[in-house]
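New to this. Please check both lines:
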Amino acid sequence: MIPKEILKKVKRIEIATRGLVNDVFSGEYHSVFKGRGMEFAEVREYQIGDDIRNIDWNVTARSGHPYVKVFDEERELTVMLLVDVSSSGNFGTTSQMKGEVAAELCAVLAFSAIKNNDKVGLMIFSDKIEKFIPPRKGKQHVLRVIREILYFKPEDSRTDLNVALEYLSRVIKRKSIVFLISDFLTEDYEKSLQVANKKHDIIAIDIIDPREVEMPSVGLLELEDAETGETVMVDTSNPAIRGSFYSQSKEERETREKFFKSIGVDNININTDRSYVEPITKFFRMRARRLAF
């Protein structure tokens, strides 16, 4: 039995994201993620401005009037949500933890997908595949996806992106839109990501808490690695330590973004202390411009 508080969260997320999907993201999503191609719909009489390459010469010859073939975009796509549920997702110093932000992002993307008649699947992973839900259509399916993300209790605490990416390549045979949602606090996943991106269209969504970028000056502070349990005492009042922490986190983020770009993986940075609407909208528009050329 799913606890009432989880069901309330699901409802709140559905209500919060419905307006965004209807007013902002649905049209942007459609323009960016186009279908697999064009399928024949019908023939009709030629009209001024029609592409002469679409003239159906057989029908034209029989009728004595020019007719053209009409095509519809073959829209149906498969969207896979790969969600990192390692223990670092339970971190948050603002109004939401990283895992909660991930759930809202999944809701927006999933509702945008089904509004455009696409299938949505879910893979929840830590350093193993914790849960896999095959792609399907429909609102009830999307609500199940959101419930799973909010309610699921992972067995392991660490992250292994290789496991998720290799499993994706094995079980999803058709080229899909893949949103890889993580904080990417792991190593040695570059080769797997490069291989998976050759088959699928992968978008990396990096969820960042401000305290993972900049350390506050609050004196002695015991820090614990959420995934390993290791602890360390840090004097945050020391400017050199804070400066080193900031420089290292910045360098790691820039290196990661440079790698994504080098292999053709689009990257969206989401900060837990800011709305995700602007970066998601910016991504859609940037990608739409790129497709136009």
Summary: The radius of gyration is 23 Å. The first strand starts at residue 37 and ends at 45. Strands lie at 37-45, 67-74, 78-84, 119-125, 129-136, 177-182, 201-208, 220-224, 231-235, 266-271.
